Amino acid sequence: MPVVKGGVWTNIEDEVLKAAVSKYGLNQWARVSSLLARKTPKQCKARWQEWLDPSIKKVEFTKEEDEKLLHLAKLMPTQWRTIAPLVGRTANQCIERYQKLLDEAEQREAGELGLTGGDDSAAPTADDVRRLRPGEVDPDPETKPARPDTIDLDEDEKEMLSEARARLANTQGKKAKRKARERQQEESRRLAALQKRRELKTAGINIKVVTRKKGQMDYNADIPFEKKAAPGFYDTNEELTLNERQRANFDPRKQQLAQAKRKQDEEEEAGRKRRKADKDAPSASYREALKAGQMQRVREAEQSSKRRALNLPAPQVGEGELEEIVKMGMIGERANTAAEGENDATRGLVNSYSTLNTSAPIRTPKAPAHEDHIANEIKNIRALTQTQSSLLGGENTPLHEGAGSTGFESAAPRMQNIVTPNPLATPLRQGANGVGATPLRPGQTPLRTPRDSFALNAQGNDMVLRHRLKQGLASLPKPKQQSWELELPEEEQEVATNKSGLPEDAAVRDQRERELREAQELIERKRRTQVMQRELPRPVSVNLEVLLRAAEDIEDSAEKAIAREAAILVAHDAAKYPLSTATQRSQVPRLDQIEDIALAEARRQILLEAKDKLKADAVEAAWAKSNTNSLLLGLGCYDDTEQEEVEAMKEAFDEIQDIMIDSAEKGAKLEKKLNLHLGGYKQRAETLRKKMGDSATELEKATNALNSFKILAISEEAAARNRLAALREEVGFISRREREAQELYRRNREELNALVAEGTNGSATHGALTFDLVARCSTTRARASVLTLPHGPVNLPMFMPVATQASLKGITPEQLEQTGCRLCLNNTYHLGLKPGQDVLDAVGGAHKLQGWKHNILTDSGGFQMVSLLELATITEEGVRFLSPHDRTPMLLTPEHSMSLQNSIGSDIMMQLDDVIVTTSPDRQRMREAMERSVRWLDRCLAAHRNPATQNLFCIIQGGLDLELRRACAEAMLARDTPGIAIGGLSGGEAKDDYCRVVAACTALLPELKPRYVMGIGYPEDLVVSVALGADMFDCVWPTRTARFGNAVTKSGMLKLRNNEYANDFGVIEEGCGCMCCRPREAGREAEGLGVTRAFIHHNVAKETVAAHLLTMHNVWYQLNLMSDIREAIIADRFPAFIKEFYGRLYPDRSEYPKWAVDALSGVGVDLLQD
C-alpha cells in the first residue's frame, strides 16, 4: 500500500527540518525532505516559508497592517502571494486575517440588527463553520502549530529520527572531508599571511592588504555595514591633516622601544608610590575625618549656590515707555466708548480699530471625527460580494469613497493626518477660501482690505482688480496670423432604440452611421463639376481675377454669365481640390447653393439644346483647327507664313543662345566657388593618394620579408626536429640502460631475500599466516601468490570489499560469497561504537554477527583521525574524540584497538597508527606521526592476545616524504609482523606522488610477506599498483558509486542515471559473468537475472533495488579484474594484459593518463608502444 505523505507536523519534524535547512540551505528541498519520511519537498518548503522562518511575525495584526491588507486586496484581488511581502506577513496569514475581518464585520452587523437568537437558536459562527470535523483532513497543516510529541514513538518515527541524526552528524563524506581540508588550508594561509604582515610591520614595512576577489569585502580588514558619522558643524580638516602627518612620522620600532621603556618607568613609578603610601599611610580615624570634612565642604557649596542672586539682562522697554503705551490705550478706549453711545453722528465718525474682524477661531478647532477606513473597506468588500450579476443590469453597488476610504492613488493606503493649526505660520485674516487663508504672495491681501469701515480704500480696490485683469490678459499667448472659420455645432442625434426599449447595439449603430456617411459622400461627389467627376485634366495655376476680367470683356450677357460662372468653378476646384504639383494656395471662392433638382433640370436643358446643334463635321473641324501648327493659338482667322516661321525660329534660337550664355556664366561662378571650397580637399586627396601608394610599396616589401622568414622558420624547424630526435635517442638509451641496471638490482635483491627467507620452495609461515609465492612477472614487480589464513586460503593479488559495520551495503553475505570474495574488511572504530564490544563478545565475534564463514580484515580506526578530524584530538596516549551518535567523549588507545579486534575475531588485524593527510605542508607533524606509529606498534604487539589465530599487520607512514617512508619501513621490518601495509595514501595527493611512494615502499619490503596498500579501488590504480609490487587492496568506491547509479565496466564507467539509457534494453555489460548480467536461460547451471540498463535507469532514482543490483555487478567486476590479473601473471603475459586493459579503457592513446604511463615505464612497460 503506498504511503500518503503529509499530515500534521510534530515537534520532532520541525526540529529535523530546521537542522536540515541549516545544513543544506533553502534550495535543496529534495535532500531536506529525504530526512522526513512523511513529508514531500513541497510540504517542507511550505512549512519553512509559512511557519518556521524566523522572519515570520506571529503577533497580532496592527491597525496599519489591517489598512494596508484591505487596500492591497482591493487593488489586487486574490493575489495573496504578491500582497504578503508588501504587508510583511505570509500569504496564509493575510488570507486568515482577511476572512476574520469580514467575519467580525458580519457578526457586528448581525448583532446591531438583532438577528442573533438565543444559545440554542443562534446560527453557527464563521469559526464554527471552518472548524474541522472529526475525520476531516486539514488542507493547510503547514500553517498550524506543531503537534506535541507522543511519549511512545512508533517505529517509523524512531527510524526517521535516528537516520536524521546520523545524516546530520555525518562528516565522513567526501564533500565534508574536502570542505574540512579547504577550511584548514584557508586558516593556515590566513595565519601565515597575518604573521608575515606583523613581522614586516615590526620591521617598518607596511604592505597593502589586497582583497582576494574583486567586488567582495575582506572581513578581516574592513568594517561591514559601516556607517560613517555625518560631518559636524566645525571644520576638522586641520585635525585630519595633523593625524596623517603624525601617522607618516610614526616609527613602529621606536614606538616599541618607547613602550617598553614607558612600561618599565610606569612599573617603577607605581612601586615607588606604593612604597610611599605604605610608609606615610595615615590611620583609619584620620581618613574618616578627612572624608567627612570633604562632604561638609560639598554641602556648604551647594547651599551657597542656592542663595546666589538672579542675574537677568537689562529690559528693552523702560517704565516710562510702558506708561505712555497705557495712556494711548486708555484714549482709544474712551473714543470707542463714545462711539458706542446713542449719538449717530459720533458713531459715524469714530470706529473701532483695536481688534481684527475675523472669523478665525481663537481656540484650536476640534478635530473632525476620524472615519474608520477599515470598517469602510470591509463594507465595500461585503457589498461587492453580495451584488448581483452585471449581466442583469441595474445601478452600480454604492461604495464608501473619498476621504472615508483608502483610495486608489498608490500601493499605500491614504492616511488621515490631523495637524494642529499654527498661528505663527497661518495668518489670522480670512481669505477667500476659508478661515485664515494664506495670501498668494507676500504682502497681498485677499479680496479686500480688512477693517475698512469707512470705505476709504474702495478706489484702490478697483485699481487692484483692473491691474490683475491686465496682468491676466498680458499673460495670454500672442495671436497667430491665421484665418478662423466658425461653424455651427451639429445637433447630436438621439440614440436609436429598438422596440424592446433597450439601447442600440454598438456594431449596428456603427454600420448605420457608416452607410449614412457613404451616402452623404456620394451626394457631395455628384454635386461636383463634371471635370472633377470624370477626373479630366485641370490647369496647374489659376488666376481668378484674370478670368473674371476676360469674362467682363464679353458683350453677350448670357456668354458673360456663363464665362463668369465657369471661372468661379475653375477657381473653386483649383482651391478646394488642389493638384499635387500646384504650389499656389488661394482662398476658396464661395459658391451659391443650388438644389439638386435645379442642377438636374439644367443638365437636361443643356443636353436638349446641344442635341440639334452639335454635328460631327463641326467637331472634326474644331479638332483640326485646334491642332494646327499655328504659333498664335486661339486666333482661328490668322495663319503664319513661311518667313514668319523663320523669324520665329531665329528669335527662339537667340533666346536659347542667351540662356546658354547665362548658364555658362553661372557655371563658371559655381566652379570658382567650388574650387574655393574644395581646393583643400583636393590637396588632401592627392596627399592621401600618394601615401596609399607608399603604403602599398611598403606592404609589398613586408610581405616579401614575411615569406622569407616563414621559409627560414620551416628550415629551422626541420633542423630542430632532427636535433631533438637525436637528443631523445640518446636520452632513451641512457634511460634504458639505467632501467636495466635497476631491474638487475631488483632481481638480485629479490633473489637474496628469497634465499634468506624461511624455506627454499618460495613459501613462508608466520604465526597464523602462510604465504606461498606462485609466480612472478618477468618484466614488472607483479607477483601471484596464495595467502592461507585461519578461515581459508586467499588468492593474491586481490581486492577486499568494505563491509564497514559488518554488512556490505546492498547485498547479503550469501550474495557476496557468490561473487568469489574470500576476504572482506570490517571497521573497528564503527563496530566498537555500535553494536559495541560487549555484544561482540556475547555473540562470538564478527563472523557469527554477520554470518560470514570466510576471512575478515579489520581496520584499526586510524583513518578516522582524518575523516573525523573535527571530533578527534590526538595525543601520545591515544585518540580522544566525540561519538558521532551522541557526542559522548571517548578514548581509543592502541591497547583498546587490539582488544576490540580480538573481540571481533578478525583474521588480519591492523595496528593503530597516527594518520594525517598526505597534502599537509607540516613536515614536523608528519615526522611526529611516523614516529608515533612506530611506538604505537610496540604497544599493539604487547596488547595482542591471540597471535596464534590472528595476524597483526604493521602500517608504514611518512606522507609523501620518501626519507620518512624509508625510516618507517626499516623500523617496522625490525618488528617482524606477518604482513606489511602502506598507509596514509588516497588522501587527495597527486597520482604521480602516489606511484612514487608505492614503488619506493615495495622495493624495501621482503619478498615472502603480503603487501597491502590501503584505500585503493579505482581499476586503473589497481593495475598500476599490482605492477609496482602490491598484493592487497580495499576501498568503498565500488559500492558507493553503485548507490549513485554508476556501473563499472571494462570500457569505463556507465552513468545509468542519464536519459540515454532510458530505452537501452541491453544488459549492463555484455560478456559479464555476474548474476545481474547473466541472461535468463532455462537449464543453465548458474541462471542469471538479465537486468537491463533501462530497468536500472528507471529505478535508480527512488528504488533501492537498483543500488543492490549495481553493487553486485561492481563487486564482481573488481574481484574478476584481480582474478584476470593473477592469471596473466602466472602465464607471464601481464605487460600485454596492461596494454589490453588501457586499450579498452582509452581507445585513443593520447588519452592515456600521464601518471600511469610514467609509473609503468619505471617497471618496464611502455604503454605508448605496441
Automatic annotation (TrEMBL):
Top-level taxon of the source organism: Eukaryota
EC number: 2.4.2.64
Compartment annotation: Cytoplasm
Domain Myb-like: 1-52, 53-102
Gene3D superfamilies: Homeodomain-like, Queuine tRNA-ribosyltransferase-like
NCBIfam families for this protein: Q_tRNA_tgt (TIGR00430), tgt_general (TIGR00449)
Subunit structure: Heterodimer of a catalytic subunit and an accessory subunit.
Protein name: Queuine tRNA-ribosyltransferase catalytic subunit 1
Organism name: Cytospora leucostoma
